[in-house]
Write a structure and sequence with these properties.
Number of domains: 1
Strand order of the largest sheet: 1-2
Distance between the termini: 53 Å
Radius of gyration: 21 Å
Shape: globular
Length: 354
Amino acid sequence: MIDNKKQEENSSLILRVIGMLFFLWLFLLSIKLLGGTFKHYFSADTADLIKNATDNPFVSLFIGILATAVIQSSSSTTSIIVAFVGAGTLSLHNAIPMIMGANIGTSITGILVSFGQMRNKMEFNRSFSAAIVHDYFNWFAVIVFLPLEIISGMLWKENGVAKGILERSSEFLTSIFVGTSGVKFSSPLDTVVKPIAHYMENFVANLMGNQILEDNIQYDGALLAIMVILSLALLFVALNYMSSIMKKVLIGKFEKIIHKYVFNRATTALLFGILFTVSVQSSSITISLVVPLVGAGILSMEQIFPYAVGANIGTTITGILAALVTGNASGISIAIVHTLFNVFAAIGLSPLKA
């Protein structure tokens, strides 16, 4: 009886691993489709309109906040931004404040979760405080690093172009791994999804009656709309199911290891926040899990602070995966900006907790 139960658990785990790999592939496919669609459709004039709309860093910041607040997934927002930058529709410089805004928008979920304990005033006060720890950290990170990026860019220009510390750092790291920001690189992940993405794009174009001349699809507004909807649908489905599968695998064991291994030390809480968020592909889920535990008095805000910081860093891995299929080093650069922003914020702002 015990052996049968163990076999069932092993079979279930294998199926979940296979499912996780499939939805990871589907996620990469959605990014390839989205980037290819924007690249094929948008002309130089349209790209200029997007550039002009995001030239103001504060407008770009609030676009990131609003987009993430609506779809409640910074992973989705950053993946879309990476696709835009990789396609050349959005510049790396203008996308940086948008990436910062995505961090703020995702922290709303924890606040909503805290309202589940409204019946008990003491528990609600604790859980709400735990939820806004994440918000305050993200807001302070933007308040510090957005002006720093703008000012450092103004003081440190290259050929008359303002480039802040995050932009310069990301381009330097990108040049080490894949070369200069203007080149293409061959990604092994790209080869896994490119043939299917190419087939799907051609299939939908034929279905819509659009001409394909020398493998170049004649895009119009209707085809653009269909391809964007299809790409975003695949992206959201993939992230949702990846998150769901990993929750089933991990959450059952979550409470058992909380006190013994995770929140007894700041370093373990930080690392667990990173690894858990990488697994479930959502910092919103990572934070939402501990908000009720703080409300119940099981954990303190001091214990969950490094965990929340780790969640911010962990969520940047999705953007890096998305960047690997864009085939453009600028896409890698904006993904690295997201990681650097959260790492710098963790290093620079964590002492403020004391």
